Amino acid sequence: xxxxxxxxxxxxxxxxxxxxxxxxxxxxxxxxxxxxxxxxxxxxxxxxxxxxxxxxxxxxxxxxxxxxxxxxxxxxxxxxxxxxxxxxxxxxxxxxxxxxxxxxxxxxxxxxxxxxxxxxxxxxxxxxxxxxxxxxxxxxxxxxxxxxxxxxxxxxxxxxxxxxxxxxxxxxxxxxxxxxxxxxxxxxxxxxxxxxxxxxxxxxxxxxxxxxxxxxxxxxxxxxxxxxxxxxxxxxxxxxxxxxxxxxxxxxxxxxxxxxxxxxxxxxxxxxxxxxxxxxxxxxxxxxxxxxxxxxxxxxxxxxxxxxxxxxxxxxxxxxxxxxxxxxxxxx
Length: 332
Fold this sequence. Notes:
The chain is of the alpha+beta class. It has one domain (54-329). It is 25% helix and 11% strand. It is built from 5 helices and 10 strands, in the order ααααβββββαβββββ. The strands form 4 sheets. A 4-stranded antiparallel beta sheet has the order 5-6-7-8, with helices on one face.
């Protein structure tokens, strides 16, 4: 009996040997090495899927909006029109639903702000889960109480600076700022700020007339992750553009060597596209190119007429032509 007790005690005192501990640690390290890449891929795939869902939701919201506007996607200049210009007693007045279209209001900031103000989507949905830029952030101080159609206020556009129609002025007391798409430092800062990750069909020119609407065109790209500035694929199309590989937009889904983005089409399907020169899509024949770059203005623009404007997906920071055709586009 005594011998049995001593044996039990000896068994209880026995622990892992150094070799056993090292073996277990080696196995754990091996498992971690095998699992981490798979987990990273799964996480990246989940974020890419979530981003695709956001693209789809934004486009679906535009389609819902179009039901009340004769098939048109959100167009700020039609919602917030210019003063009535006719022979009636309303002439010169800001009247909801009356007056000419304010084409110079059709920029990206006003379009997205209009949709948020009318609760078609939230500010959070406009920033991709894989957004690589530290200068892009959710608009977390959006003020829905500003909505007053009778006072000609459909979103916070500030007060227009008549010396530069595109840039609103604000009271220094009011800390609230308008929805922003300024990534190029046009506000005087070294680097601008932006509240969205997504470029879209320009709300101007031929593209606006043909496809800024619920066209159900399965081959027309309407919205996507932002792309390289001016769509420069090799550095050869634009002498003033930064090198392709310097664009932070390459990091949305493609690492840092190749642009890969979720592209939403006008039939509301989304594809993961791995080039700025996708094949098999509808494009505008400008007489210069036989295929389109998603983010590059392929044609020369006549500033007096706006003819030749041919850019597919962009962020419009301002419309500088009175006709609403010539745009300044920034995507990077």
